[in-house]
């Protein structure tokens, strides 16, 4: 049976496609976007998070760690990341829930059991299931099996993707996808590589092919001040989307920094600490540019 790594399943989501939805977050992403608000989604395997403010220094984690990776230095609890094997024993023993494992292996049947609990809400609202991440196409076989299981239950499916995957991967899953939420970020390839870690050529090619094949798509564009909100990038994206074989709406997603604390918990650096979200006025100005291309625009 196909298995995959999931880091969250959110119920009653209303921002990841039509109606009331269950969003399944896959772990692992080939991109490393500077503004990513889900840094826990980037690594493929499970990760351990420690919330220092919740720790009551009870010592339970020290007692159960089979590797002896946890110690107290007088100022608090310290974990040796080189010795830690991510067994999760300290998480189970932590009374204060200061320790958490992000990412767990699940079977298709386990995920579907969660999904099927809310079929009545999907039917009533025109909703369904959204597979997000991370990048769900990075776990292609697991995603395909889930999509096929949803199709067998007549559950509406959405795939939220960066588009960075081979066309062969898209070709396998696309017969079972009702809607793609497709991210675009930067049109200049050098800038795209700088701020995401990968080229945009595959992303643009796949979007053209999906549109040509007649798939339902919503193009999503995060607006990150100083990185991709300049006039040239906005005009180039508008021209590109307007020239696609089908007409597709654009959803503008204003940058936010609510995920910055996650980087500290994961002991990762965040490069946009002082960046402020775009103003309402600036978002409206960008929307007007896209409307000049006769595109339907929504500000998310």
Explain this structure:
- By secondary structure, the protein is α/β, with parallel strands linked by helices.
- The chain has a nine-stranded mixed beta sheet. Strands 3-6 form a two-stranded antiparallel ribbon. The protein has a two-stranded antiparallel ribbon with strand order 4-5.
- Helix 9 links the parallel strand 11 and strand 12.
Quick overview:
With 300 residues, the protein is an alpha/beta fold.
CATH superfamily label of the largest domain: Aldolase class I
Domains, number: 2
Strand order of the largest sheet: 7-1-2-8-9-10-11-12-13
Catalogue the unreliable spans.
Answer: none
Strand content: 15-25%
> What's the SSE pattern?
EEEHEEHEEHHEHEHEHHEHEHHE
Whole-number radius of gyration?
21 Å
Class inferred from helices and paired strands: alpha/beta
What would CATH call the class of the largest domain?
Alpha Beta
- Inertia-based shape: globular
Strands, count: 13
CATH architecture label name of the largest domain: Alpha-Beta Barrel
First-to-last CA distance: 37 Å
Largest sheet: 9 strands, mixed
Overall pLDDT: 95
Task: Determine the fraction of residues in helical runs and give it as a percent range.
Answer: 25-40%
Q: What is the count of DSSP helices, taking H or I runs of 4+ residues?
A: 11
State the CATH topology of the largest domain: TIM Barrel
